[in-house]
Amino acid sequence: MNRVRTLCLALVAGGFALPAMAECTPPVAPTKVPDATTATEAEMIAAMQTLKRYDTDVNTYVKCLEFEAKQNRLSKEEQARRHNAAMDSLTSIAAKFNEQVRIFKAKG
Fold first, then answer.
1. Does 9 score more than 70 pLDDT?
2. Contact 36, 97 (CB under 8 A)
3. Buried b vs exposed e over 37-57: b needs ≥16 C-beta within 10 Å?
């Protein structure tokens, strides 16, 4: 009987946690772009893979924002603000990486 009661309480508590899980969490941008003048090819490839993951994470985040706005849990203005912030971050880090790729290729 105690097991059933505990299970029921856990299910009820879990139901209250669902709205919190529905919130979109912005992805964490990569914090470091390798210095092409000293980086190895393996470091550049690893950075590229990290950037690709970040791109995927940003796209997933943007889709989450769209869904939340369609469900009226997020205003269109807030959706646009968060979308633009995520895309600006992605564009910025991609530009830094691409510059280092050009330098890396020029030295090799």
1. no
2. no
3. eebeeeebeebeebbeebeeb
